[in-house]
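COMPLEX REQUEST
Ligand: zinc ion
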Amino acid sequence: MRIDVITSSPLDFSTAALVVGCYEDGPDELYSSIDQALDGILTKLASTREFTGKPGSTHLIHTLGKLAPQRVLLAGLGKRGDLDDRRIRNAAGDAVQALRRARIPSFALALQLAASHETALQVACEGALLGSYSFDEFKTKEREERFRFDTMTVLVNRNEEAAWEVAHRADAIYRGVQLARDLVSQPGNVATTGYLASAAHELAARRSLSCLVLEADVLESMGMNALLAVGKGSVEPPRLIVTEYNGAGERIRPTVLVGKGITFDTGGISLKPGAGMEAMKTDMAGAAAVLGTMEAAALMKLPVNLVGIVPTAENMPGGRAYKPGDVITAMSGTTIEITNTDAEGRLVLCDALHYACTHYKPAAVIDLATLTGACVVALGHETAGMMGNDRRLIEDLKRAGDRSGERVWEMPLWEEYGELMKSDIADLKNAASTRDGGAISAAWFLKQFVGQNRWVHLDIAGVAWADKARPDSPKGATGVGVRLLIDYLGGNRYRVPHG
Ligand code: BES
Ligand code: ZN
Ligand code: ZN
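STATUS: Structure written out below.
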């Protein structure tokens, strides 16, 4: 969907549909003038409670030639006093999903709010773009009549130049989210380790990043045996994908992002139950978030240095698969007793984290992983779990989460949790013998591989996929992580260059 910015009064602008945000507790000026022009229909809808302005509500009405817009789509903002970025973003997302159902490809957004709410323009653009996503590559029957959004025209009453800048920023963030969602949506037979490597190469070519893919023989010579072990049961070879974006000059330390890239997680020899196993194609959502963030950061020309590292493998049972009881020596030299082959994420990550900390001098290391079912049990689907070793980094990410709408919630990472991970025959075991505190014991395991580097782990198992549509994310892949990381990197405080 293209964005256009035009200075115009909303009621004079010809469009198939004008989206208008409405309060629950009384009309604003724009609402009143629409009501007047349409002979009091809005007052009528309010009195019958057909449209109340509650958050999550929308209502489409035809204007029958009484206004320049052919239709008005009302989107509920809730009570004036409760208005915040989240409400506006969600209202825009709900509106766009209603437009999809009505099959209206081009529309205009009235931003009367922008006068009083500074961030309204950006979050409205973001919400609309995020809500417009769909993944229909494999729907053959609908191919001919496939619905595609065309143009969203943002109507402002002044300062068009500044509005363009904000629109560009929202667009860049969305392109990163879109890449992440597309990668996660792809089935496991398409999105293999080789597919992720090509996607990274294409991204690098598109945005002038550098990209290096370490193949299995190289991983072997480097001693990345934990990553290699996980890939052993599959015919798809494991890989380490390394992308770099330099926006800040050589002397500045990079922020290193590491994303779990298990293209499908059967559990391996510790096989998962069949019911719901198809969801395990999302086990590379961390990898998708890393690549999506690289895309958005490069598009925005953010003045930062970034390294995106993706350890990728397919976790399969098979004649060559790694087994419970095996002992492997990770790249760091740490020995690990395998007690459960389904705890594979921490194995691919431990070698990638060690690589990150030894090949770079990171300003910070942030890993994202669909790591544990225990995190989903603890926090549900509204927030990622966060654990780390650096107070400032944790607090910065909390703030970025609140601002960007991708919230994170801190869990403790006390040393005592490490008791669960002690092995009788090796330095560590890869899975505790209890599920209790499983998100934390997994994070504790990762912590053993980052040394003194500032590090945060984000467990995104509960938020990478939405079973029901949300305003800012239709059912399916959410692309979680991109908005959070771009905000953390300063993306929402930085002037995005044009072009
Ligand atoms: N990929 C899963 C975690 C997961 C669960 C992601 C639900 C998304 C939704 C991970 O590899 C896994 O299987 N973890 C095990 C760890 C256990 C064996 C210690 C789990 O959570 O059960
Ligand atoms: Zn697993
Ligand atoms: Zn997994």
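REMARKS: Residues 160-185 form the longest helix (26 residues). The pocket of zinc ion (ligand 2) is lined by residues 265, 267, 342, 344 (CB under 6 Å).
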